[in-house]
Specification:
41% helix, 434 Repressor (Amino-terminal Domain), six-stranded mixed beta sheet, 3 domains, six-stranded parallel beta sheet, Rossmann fold, globular, alpha/beta
Length: 338
């Protein structure tokens, strides 16, 4: 049996045992609890992997700080967006491996609501929190403001504080997708963006602009619409751009909701307009439209954030861990271009 160690070279985890035995983490958990629903061959493989890797049951849970609740908080900005559902699943996967439960909250992009939810989770003495911050200042999320509670930010970097964070390559993905539209021959590319105060909105606009500059094209600010928040506002903005005499031949959208709004506008218009956007979405491959999509593994954002938080909860015998930043890569998918 091939040995498998956790990526950071530390003590083996339940996930390592599962990978080595060729089963799920849930199966490993059931074997360790003497659950009779596990087949004998699977049980034997799990026990062999436990012995080979030197896995100690509940090692992480035992190492949690004294008085830990066995729960972590996850605060996101918009549960209606499938991105956050996938992120939550990634967090849940890691939390389950370490015997932790997840309390999920939604802020609807409201900073005041975020403050209240964070304070409530802190009062419940969760062992740590993962937060997708709503505002541009995050001082209320600093460990000092939360009495030393470990915290990790996801999707947006810390502002006014130091903290671990997991980001997407927002700039690179937007630049690559816009460059693809330019390579396809488009010179008038409209931009449909979320509020510029948001980190993702600002970075994706930078990528759009940089692709034009790299190609020696002067971007046209009259083709830019920012501050869009949902499908209806994106549809209205796209209709206005496409109805103009100098209408763009392509649109770049900064998230899946804005792309869907643009699709509605293009369908109503009845003439071909190339579309590019961030975030893959269901049925994008069967719409019959030329779509260039910036895709990435949203579950991986949650997994990385979860593991960072576990590291913080456990601490380090070598001393304090400096604030860390990791970036999940993007790649471009093309639909309807045959």
């Amino acid at each position: 049996m091939a040995q498998h160690r956790s990526g950071d070279g530390g003590a083996p985890t339940m996930r390592d045992v599962a990978a080595s035995a060729g089963v799920s983490a849930m199966t490993v958990s059931r074997v360790l609890k003497n659950d009779t629903r596990v087949s004998e061959p699977a049980r034997e493989r799990v026990l062999a992997a436990v012995e080979e890797l030197g896995y100690r049951r509940n090692e992480t849970a035992r190492s949690l700080r004294l008085g830990g609740s066995g729960m972590i908080g996850l605060v996101v900005t918009n549960l209606a967006n499938p991105f956050y559902s996938r992120l939550a699943l990634g967090v849940q996967e890691v939390a389950s491996e370490h015997g932790l439960r997840v309390l999920l909250s939604n802020t609807a992009e409201q900073v005041d609501k975020e403050r209240g939810l964070v304070e409530d989770l802190a009062s419940r003495q969760v062992d740590g929190m993962i937060v997708v911050p709503a505002g541009s200042s995050h001082r209320h999320l600093a460990p000092a403001a939360l009495r030393g509670m470990p915290i990790v930010l996801a999707s947006r970097p810390p502002a006014g504080m130091d903290a671990d964070c997991v980001l997407v390559d927002d700039f690179g993905g937007a630049e690559q997708a816009t460059a693809q539209l330019i390579a396809d021959g488009h010179r008038r590319i409209g931009f449909l963006g979320n509020p510029p105060a948001l980190y993702t909105g600002a970075e994706r606009f930078r990528g759009y602009w940089a692709a034009h500059e790299s190609a020696g094209i002067e971007p046209d600010e009259s083709q830019v619409r920012r501050g869009l928040t949902d499908v209806p506002t994106a549809e209205a903005a796209a209709r206005a751009l496409l109805d103009a005499p100098d209408a763009p031949t392509a649109l770049f959208c900064t998230n899946n909701r804005l792309t869907q709004g643009a699709i509605r506008a293009v369908r109503a218009l009845g003439r071909p307009v190339a579309l590019a956007g961030f975030d893959d979405f269901d049925l994008a491959d069967v719409l019959g439209l030329p779509l260039t999509i910036v895709s990435y593994d949203a579950d991986e954002i949650g997994r990385r954030a979860g593991q960072m938080l576990i590291d913080r909860i456990n601490g380090s015998s070598a001393g304090p861990i400096p604030a860390r930043r990791t970036v999940v890569p993007t790649h471009v998918i093309r639909y309807g271009t045959h």
